[in-house]
Structures are given as C-alpha cells and as structure tokens.
Amino acid sequence: MSNPTLELSGIVKGYNAGRENEVQVLRQIDLSVGEGEVVALVAPSGAGKSTLLHIAGLLDTADTGVVKIAGQDMTGLSDRKRTAIRREDVGFIYQFHHLLPEFTALENIVLPQLANGVVRALAAERAQDLLTRVGVAHRADHRPAALSGGEQQRVAFCRALANTPRLLLADEPTGNLDPGTSDQVFGALMELVRGTGLSAVIATHNLELAARMDRQLRLQDGALVAL
Ligand code: ADP
Question: What pTM value is reported for the model?
C-alpha cells in the first residue's frame, strides 16, 4: 500500500492565543486522503475551512499536530523546503481566479512551469493540453479580462495543475459562478482531477457538488465528521 497523499493528525489551530479575542478554529483534525481520492469539505462560512486548507497546503502552520504529504512529515522543515514541496506537490484553486491580468491564458499556465525549471516549449505544450482538457483551448491567446467567469476558472484549474502536483486543494472553486455555469465548470474540474489521478480536497457549500466526490466531510466545531 502506498502512503496517503495527505495525512493530517491531531491538528489544532487558534488565533490570538492568551488574548480576549482568542479563537480556537481547529480543535482536532484527523484526515487521510488516499491516492486519487477526492474529498468534499463542507462547512459554513467561518468554520475554518480556509485555515484547514492553508495548513494542509503548507501556507500556514498548525499550533500542534502533524501534516504529512506522500508520507513525509512536514514538521520542522525549513521554510525553503516547505516552499519547494508546496510548489512541486500542491496545487491551489480559490474562489476568485487570481490569474495575472497582463498575460494570456496560456502564459498564465506556462509561467509556474518556467519557475519550476521546465523549458518553455514543453511548458507551452502542457499548458495547451490542459486547456484542451477543460474545453478552453480556443481561448489560449486571450487575456483573463477577455474571458467569461467560467473560462477564467477553467484556466485557473489548469494553472493549479501546471506542475503536476500530487494534491489539489480548492476553496469554493465555483463559488463565484452562477448555478448553471458552476455545474459545468465543476464537471470540467472533476474530469481534470479524475483524468490525472490527483488527490483532492475541495471545499464547497453545494451539497450536490459534494455528492459527486468520493467522500463528504463536514467541518463542525473544529473537527471533521462524515456527512
Ligand atoms: P472559512 O474559510 O471556513 O470561512 P476561516 O478559516 O477563514 O473560515 O476562518 C475561521 C475563523 O478564524 C473565523 O472566525 C476567522 O475570523 C478566524 N480567523 C481566520 N484567520 C484569522 C487571523 N489571521 N487572525 C484572527 N482570526 C482569524
């Protein structure tokens, strides 16, 4: 058996420790996401889902607890090493696309690959392939402002996968779109994830979208419970 792609054990996280406005956001998070598994994270606003995703993706650190990616314990690694692992192994998608406005769709997917040492021709080939998979290859040379909201998110999905991560973390990836578009764009995301065998944790408010994933967890009172 291979290691789980992501393992969180005993994660605790609070803010403003010792002060009047102290909040304990995560009290006891235990989660194991297997290779190719797609987990839905359902939580009301303010429940701590962004905090959880940031800790899992090494953008933030827990007060206590262990994060393992592909079996490797992230505790005590230098910032440099954490940044390298994040860049190579983790892809992020947010509710807003965060594409660079002065670059085309294709260039937005090429740039992270160049930063990772891939040569331009190969990076462009991969970017074009990813855009084809999500149905926006014909928009490759357009800047984000010339794309619809759904197209912008599809490009953001490709950018998140540009460096072939093991783990995808998505925070309300279709939360900004109208319901019809959201459904289609979510379908494109799931095809992309399934087609690459990626593991994913995808936060959503939408129970219908959550039902299309392998497992549904609710973040409640700082812990995860099965839906
Ligand atoms: P969600 O993504 O589920 O909406 P967050 O993880 O963003 O929730 O936030 C969870 C709780 O932690 C909220 O009550 C929020 O106000 C609080 N919080 C988040 N970040 C900080 C911070 N840097 N300092 C203080 N409180 C924070």
Answer: 0.95
Span 62-70, average pLDDT: 96
**Half-sphere exposure in the Cβ direction for 72 (13 Å, CA):** 12
- Strands (E) across the chain are located at 6-15, 23-33, 38-42, 64-69, 72-73, 90-93, 167-171, 199-203, 215-220, 223-226
Ligand 1 centroid–CA 92 distance in Å is 18
45 CA closest ligand 1 atom index: 4
Q: What is the pLDDT of residues 136-162, one digit of tens each?
A: 999 999 999 999 999 999 999 999 999
The residue whose CA has the least distance to atom 15 of ligand 1 is: 46
Closest Cα to atom 2, ligand 1: which residue? 50
Q: Domain extents for the chain?
A: 37-61+77-226
pLDDT exceeds 90 at position 198: yes
- Was domain 37-61+77-226 assigned CATH 3.40.50.300? yes
